[in-house]
Amino acid sequence: MSDQPHGPFAGGWVSSLTLVIVFYLVLRFSTLESGALWACAMLGIGAGRVKKIGQSESSEEGETNGDQALNSILEKGSKVFFSLRWDRDFTVCEISPNAKLLLGFDGSEFLANPDLWFQQIIEADRRRVRDELSGIVRADQLVIEFQFSHASGKTIWLQDELIPVCDQNGVVYRIDGIRTDITQWKARESVVFDEQVYLRSLESAPDGVLIIDGEGNIKYFNEAVKTITGHQSMIQGHKTVFDLLNLSETSKGESWLRRLNESGHARIELECPRRTHNHRSVTLVGNSLGDGNFMVFIKDITTEVQFRNRIARRDKLTHALVKSMSSLLTEGRNEYRWTHDFKEEILHPLGVALEVDVVFLAKCVGDSSNAAMSSGDGFRLMDMWSRPGHEIESYDEDEVYSWVGPVAEWRNRLRNQNYIIDRLEGDFRKESTPPVMRITRTNSLFLVPMFMHGEFWGFMGFGKYDAQQRWQIVDRRILIAAVDSITLAVRNRIAQGRVEEANEELKKSYEQAREMAEEAKKANEAKSQFVANMSHEIRTPLNSILGFTGLLLDAKLPEEYLDWLGMVQASGKSLLNLVNEVLDFSKVESGEITLRPEPTALETTLKEMVGIFSHDAAKKELEISYEIEGIPDWVCIDEPKLREIIMNLLGNAIKFTKEGSVKIRCFSKPIADSDNEIYVYFEIIDTGIGVSTEKIESIFQPFSQADDSNTREYEGTGLGLAICKSLCKKLGGDISVRSNVGKGSCFHFFIKSKVCLPPEDVAAKARKKSINEMMNKTLGQHFPLKILVAEDNQTNQKVLKLILKRLGYQADFVGNGKLASDASARTRYDMVFMDVHMPEMDGHEATREIRKHEKSTGVEKASWITALTAHAMTGDKEKCLDAGMNDYLTKPVNIKSLLNAMRKSISYTFEMELFDDLEEV
Question: Which run of H or E residues covers position 626?
Fold first, then answer.
């Protein structure tokens, strides 16, 4: 069954939207203990926020008094208004607050206990009442009389006048009714009076009383009939009841009379004109007297019908407003996109419900919030609806109508939150006619202002073609409240439209950023791949150059040859340093550096660094030294990163100093609010060429040098200082420089560190070194290993063969990963040197095959596999370890690096610990 709220006594929540709920509750008058007419009355007296302009107060006062009278009727009147749901039990859903006066029960009791309504009907009448209610679908209206048990215990006679209420499909979903106490009337019927007493009782009855025959001819009428019909003296021509009521259409009356003759009881509601007044609404209730005559009671129900019509109109307005609100609150469009939807979904329902001819929306242009008008102030007609069949002059939505002439006063009144009623007598085509009235061809306008965030935004207008249109106060209040609600919903639409636009822009920005990030990622991958390839291509030949020159320098050759070989190896090392700098910078730039702090003796580190560069300093007759002040014996830092910084700075100091000295100074300061954290400061001071002021800001930039001319004296990539700055920041510090051209420079940097304990007993560590003394040309005799080398480059094979031979080992050599896998399947090797990049099968895949074969055969001890690769990028080592390798060795390979790699294999194979730092053989 439909739950749609139609009809005068409908109630219920309409929407979960707070804005709609508040307004709808006021209009729908639906509280549990409030009747429909009471809520309507409350709506009538609930004054709107804006006041009337240009109309006398008397008419408003009259209508307000009418509303007060309506409240009085609902609270204290002798009739109870109610609604029953059309269901199996005819449950009470609405009842007026005066129920207790008539029935002895409060309205809330009927709502709380649905059975009470029929339980109080005496048993003899209860079934008949239900049967007649069930048959209401076959009649337009129904009158039922029955006896009812009053709350006080007495039995009273009641009369229910009932009307079925249908939904839009014509299906009954509710019954509205008026209940009257007719106990006194029934008492009169049951008591036998003599004719004079009987007639005197009828004469004093408050309602009109007629006695008619079966043809409708009047035999008797009382004084009340004259008052109700307006006939103060009965005219001889009024022979029938229909003549008396002056009915122009008698078909309804004849139908009523026919039912009265057939059943002995009938009721009808009619509208009849009075002689001197407007039309009146009356009810005729006839009952048989048993002698062929009928007694007819006439009631004047004009006020009730007016109330009912007003409620029905409000019901219609409510549905229109709810539909408008729902559309506005659910459609998120931009404020300038008022299209067919807005006119059809918002303006059209309001226009039809209000029975007006035109509804339109106008938006202000310019600064309408300012009291003083400017030439640019005006308004645009954004959308308009008109009653079908009425042609409206076409208008341009972009045209701005200035606040001049007749509408100048509109602007000030609307801005001050006043509504406007304006009428036009005569031709609307006059030049002085406001443009809105001329375009809409209306002669009566009602305008309501709209405010957004406290500022005058625009207005809504409602127009009628009739200049005599009277905008009733109740309608005005409804329109004002409706426009207020629509204003909030319009603001929601505007805000939502702007959010959608912002989201679109954000989405576009996100897509652009994503595309740029993707491009940057591809560029970074391309750069990384380029650096990796460059590393591989350069390191592979360098491995041969440095390997062979290292071996030849230990051979017995003429002194002149040894000098030449020394220069070749120095050039090779210089080239290797250049490659290492590029790789280091690539790692720093990509943020792929991971810190590994360990206990470090800073004095030992500085002493070793000075020792490393003492030979280069001696060649240039430079004095090199270090100085320590207040440094803890042990600090926890990433020593390799610190060494890289110091090596770069010391190397530069010696390179750019022709005479004088290079000095390292180191001191520390505690960090506030910390127990064991300190800042360690370093100063590298030289007496070299210095750096000019204009160059100081740029020397820490990548690929930048103090002398960047084509004829510069000093070689280098310009990456060393950029790497130093990045490493300093990574270590929690920074770097700067003070310099005088021709006098020298002081590079100052600091790092963050923690004070810690030494890692182990120094004496125990020294004892391990004795083992390493055995690592010489007879290493293979002390620790025999079966070795396999997988290397596709023939030159590198020869280098490795000579170095291993020098250490006392004979190895097997293969040229690709497939051969290495096959060889390991045939022979169990203690150590495998595995080149990563080889034809047919690379080192990663070959290692996986070897590990798979070892697992399937269950070897007692797997081979120790060390990667040989010219790649030195972040992630390369991890890839090798993930493939199953144990160690990682970058090219070019020299005796020291190979010896360190073999130390790990020996420790693994013979299960013994060797000292980490090996002297170069």
Answer: strand 623-629
Number of Cβ within a 10 Å radius of residue 482? 25
C-beta separation of 535 from 583 below 8 A: yes
Q: Which two tokens stand for residue 473?
A: 């106060």
Q: What is the DSSP string of 780-829?
A: HHHS---EEEE-S-HHHHHHHHHHHHHTT--EEEESSHHHHHHHHHHS--
Identify the helix (H) or strand (E) that includes residue 269: strand 265-272
Distance CA 552, CA 554 (A): 5
Which residues lie closer than 8 Å to 813 by C-beta, 6 or more apart? 788, 789, 790, 791, 797, 800, 801
Between β-strands 744-755 and 635-637, what pairing exists: parallel, antiparallel or unpaired? antiparallel
Q: How far apart are CA 316 and CA 489, in angstroms?
A: 20
Cβ neighbours of 897 (radius 10 Å): 16
Instruction: Tell the residue number behind the tokens 């009538």, with chain if given.
Output: 44
Confirm if 847 and 865 have CB atoms less than 8 A apart: yes
Residue 141 neighbours by CB under 8 Å, 6+ apart:
161, 162, 163, 164, 267, 269
Check: CB of residue 316 under 8 Å from CB of residue 354: no
The token duo for 50 is 């804006």
- Which residues make Cβ contacts (< 8 Å) with residue 316, sequence separation at least 6? 353
- What are the backbone dihedrals phi and psi of residue 623, each rounded to the nearest 5 degrees, phi first? -90, 125
Give, as one character, the DSSP assignment of residue 860: S
Distance (Å, whole) CA 645 – CA 62: 97
Query: How far apart are alpha carbons 121 and 117 in whole angstroms?
Result: 7
Could you tell me the two tokens for 211? 């006695």
**Nearest of 285, 245, 276, 313 to residue 36 by alpha carbon:** 313
**Which letter does DSSP use for residue 345 in this model?**
I
Helix, strand or coil, per DSSP, at residue 636: strand
Question: What's the pLDDT tens digit per position in 432-474?
Answer: 778 788 788 788 888 999 888 788 888 988 888 877 777 777 7
Q: What tokens were used for 197?
A: 């007493």
Q: Are 602 and 635 in contact (CB under 8 A)?
A: yes
pLDDT tens digits, 359-410 = 888 888 887 667 777 777 888 888 888 887 766 666 777 788 888 777 888 8
Contact (Cβ atoms closer than 8 angstroms) between residue 177 and residue 161 = yes
Instruction: Kindly provide the residue ranges of all beta strands, DSSP E only, lying in 687-733, ordered along the sequence.
Output: none
Residues 74 and 96 sit within 8 Å (Cβ to Cβ): yes
pLDDT > 50? residue 38: no
Task: Give the Å distances, CA to CA, from 708 to 232, 695, 711, 712.
Answer: 123, 10, 8, 6
Torsion-angle region of residue 561: left (phi > 0), alpha (psi -120 to 50) or beta?
alpha
Q: How far is CA 511 from CA 279, 496, 505, 523, 603, in A?
A: 72, 22, 10, 18, 54
Whole-structure pTM value: 0.35
SS3 category, 597: coil
Q: What is the 3-state secondary structure (H, E, C) of 100-113?
A: HHHHCCCHHHHHHC
User: In terms of Cα–Cα distance, which of 327, 324, 227 is closest to 280?
Assistant: 227
- What is the rounded CA–CA span in Å between residue 126 and residue 443? 58
Beta bridge partners of 665: 627, 683
Query: Peptide bond preceding 558: is omega within 30 degrees of 0, i.e. cis?
Result: no
Tell me which of 28 and 417 has the higher pLDDT.
Answer: 417
Within the chain, what is the greatest distance between any pair of CA atoms? 167
| Calpha distance 283→900 (Å, rounded) | 118
Query: Phi/psi class of residue 866: alpha, beta or left (left: φ > 0; alpha: ψ in -120 to 50)?
Result: beta
Q: What one-character-per-residue DSSP string does 724-770 give?
A: HHHHHHHTT-EEEEEEETTTEEEEEEEEEEEE---SS-HHHHHHHHH
**Contact criterion met (CB below 8 Å) for 737 and 654:** no
If you average pLDDT over residues 297-324, what whole number do you get? 76
Question: What is the distance between the alpha carbons of residues 505 and 507, in angstroms, rounded to a whole number?
Answer: 5
Q: Which helix (H) or strand (E) holds 311?
A: helix 302-330
